[in-house]
């Protein structure tokens, strides 16, 4: 459905303004869909993002700084997210043996197993991107990267 119909707005200041509104609206649309996939697993999008980063580092530990650098949402509170992941038994924090000021963060076996289950659920979930061809998805990625340059 066209953005004009979705938000019931007939005109925009410019095509650039329309694109900006469309990107924000679509990002929220995708976030809502993603949240629905995560809900049965008791995981939020920021928690999933941290687990995904930790899985990519596994078996090496990560640091809070590394997590903050790689987070999709740069305003996320990594310490609070880690508190919740530790409480769920999905990640652990230990003092770094080489640097007592640093903390090593690792994903647990339970965290790895949860991500496997979530990967399957996400593959089954259709969130709109299946409407794009591989070439269209590649072009969209190029354009989005260009916006951030």
UniProtKB/TrEMBL annotation:
UniProt name for this protein: MarR family winged helix-turn-helix transcriptional regulator
HTH marR-type domain boundaries: 1-149
Organism classification: Bacteria, Pseudomonadati, Bacteroidota, Cytophagia, Cytophagales
Source species, domain of life: Bacteria
InterPro entries with a match to the protein in the record: HTH_MarR-typ (IPR000835), MarR/SlyA-like (IPR039422), WH-like_DNA-bd_sf (IPR036388), WH_DNA-bd_sf (IPR036390)
């Amino acid at each position: 459905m066209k953005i004009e119909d979705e938000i019931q707005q007939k005109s925009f200041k410019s095509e650039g303004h329309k694109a900006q509104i469309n990107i924000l609206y679509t990002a929220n649309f995708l976030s809502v869909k993603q949240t629905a996939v995560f809900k049965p697993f008791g995981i939020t999008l920021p928690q999933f993002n941290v687990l995904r980063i930790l899985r990519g580092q596994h078996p090496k530990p990560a640091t809070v700084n590394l997590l903050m650098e790689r987070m999709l949402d740069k305003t996320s509170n990594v310490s609070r997210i880690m508190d919740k992941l530790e409480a769920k038994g999905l990640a652990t924090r230990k003092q770094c043996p080489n640097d007592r000021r640093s903390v090593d963060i690792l994903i647990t076996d339970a965290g790895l197993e949860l991500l496997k289950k979530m990967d399957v659920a996400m593959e089954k979930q259709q969130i709109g991107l299946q409407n794009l061809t591989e070439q269209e998805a590649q072009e969209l990625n190029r354009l989005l990267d260009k916006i951030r340059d």
